[in-house]
Amino acid sequence: MDPLEILKVREVFSRGERQFVATRGDREYVISRHPKYGYFRVDPYPDEKELAEIYCDFDNPTYSFHEFKYLDLIENRLKLTVGNRWKVTEIGCGNGGTLAHFRERGHTTFGFEPGRKDAALCRARGLDVAECSFDPEVLAQRGLQDLIIMTNLLEHVPNPDAFLRALSRHLNPATGFLLIQVPNEFNPFQEQFIRNAGVGYFFIGPPIHLTYFQPDSLERLLEDCGYRVIHRTCDFPMEFFLLSGRNYIGNLALGSQCHQERVAFEQSLRTNMNLLWDFYDALASKNLGREIVIVARIGSGGVKLSPDCQTETTRLEIRRLQVQDITEAYIAGLNDPLVNRYIEVRRQVQTFETVREFVAGHFSRNDAILFGVFEKSDGRLIGTVRLYEISAYHFSAIIGVCIFSRDSWGQGLGAEAVAAVVEWAFQDLGLHYVEAACFEENPAAVAMFRRAGFEVKAVFREKYRFDQRFAPVVVLGAVNPRFDATRLTTRP
Questions:
Q1: Which of 18, 82, 184, 208 is deepest in the core (most CB within 10 A)?
Q2: From start to end of 99-158, where are the E strands?
Q3: Confidence label for 63 from pLDDT (cuts 50, 70 and 90)
Q4: 207-218 pLDDT tens trace
Q5: What b/e readout covers 395-419, taking b as 16+ CB neighbours within 10 angstroms?
Q6: Plot region of 78 (φ>0 → left; ψ -120 to 50 → alpha; else → beta)
Q7: In Å, how far are 16, 174, 176, 305 from 297, measured between CA atoms?
Q8: How far apart are CA 96 and CA 139, in angstroms?
Q9: Which residues pair with 297 in a beta bridge?
Q10: Domains in the chain, ordered, with CATH?
Q11: Residue 286 and residue 289: Cα distance in Å, rounded?
């Protein structure tokens, strides 16, 4: 079977639903939309015997990518390992390039690879691999894993929902992460090229590719299977070459040349990986990039965390803060003595790097969410609301707010933002109690929380330090009047 063969694909509509019919040899494959998740998939999937025969001697023609990026994403961009040594498994590890990078950093690695040639290359590198697609019994013998990597794999797996659910049993509940990369099919650049060139859907290629994901459909699948998406980015938009008049489809030589240019681009930024990730994060926010790259973690116990984490008011848009949202005004505000007088950031000068680390760090946490507060009138980021110490057992959290834009003071926006996030926490997270604390000598903060629906619960006179003295702290709380008490009978 030639994996580079461009199949004849025709678009059809059945009962108003968009479908595709792909022909390979004398066989036709129907590709239809999954009714629950929204991605397209071969319907029905081929059986296991047929797939085993395909991949036993499969020679993957995909050009090797720079596997160092994924180590950088996990260790530096998202700071997930925090100096720890993890157990890392890659399913479909190819020639072992990614695993080799993790092993060099001291992590314990293991891989699954069904292709004979690639499995032999892994063994030549001294890597521990099983020459098969995936065997849960083999993985179980190696204990719970901290990270499972799947790059360009899930699109080949029949019934990816069942596979992801089974995989969750092998992840460490405390540090269980998935790193998934899949092709970003039907993305806006692809669709534009197809319209411009008048070509067919060249990326549809069953039975090698069985599922055709889009970012939203993949996130829905992961959430339904018990994972929480903590970060979404992408890879280089190869369609850039297609839209620039360099049609490499079916042209191996031109495709290799375009790939080498993409490699050169990424290599030129290897000493500034944050810039590369900022670029890819910006593309991902528009559903662009040739591949979707998602980091997700095992679910959060008794509290269900929404992957989008957003809410709004009449005047404000409130959503999870991204690294690309950081502005000079945000950094300057955190360094403003009038803004930071009563918050911990006053103890250190804030820079882009310290703020980026703080923002990115929240995507690896299971107990904290950092919201950006944006004015709808002009789209400006004016502040943040932080929900932290989220407890699945106690159904509780602590909240803090910082409106760093002094132009926005005196308009009630702080109370408006806090009230909206608290309501979101009650509705989406199902929390019972949210707590806030502020120094007693900051009566404006106390009044703001009270306007947001909080009540004073206690005053601690000698517990908390404020610079060179101990200062009274007011503790306030908000209780969810609609909390379902029957949830207390369920173990988190």
A1: 184
A2: 108-112, 129-130, 147-151
A3: very low
A4: 889 999 999 999
A5: bbbbbbbbbbbeebbeeebbbbbbb
A6: alpha
A7: 36, 9, 6, 11
A8: 17
A9: 177, 228
A10: 8-298 (3.40.50.150), 310-489 (3.40.630.30)
A11: 9
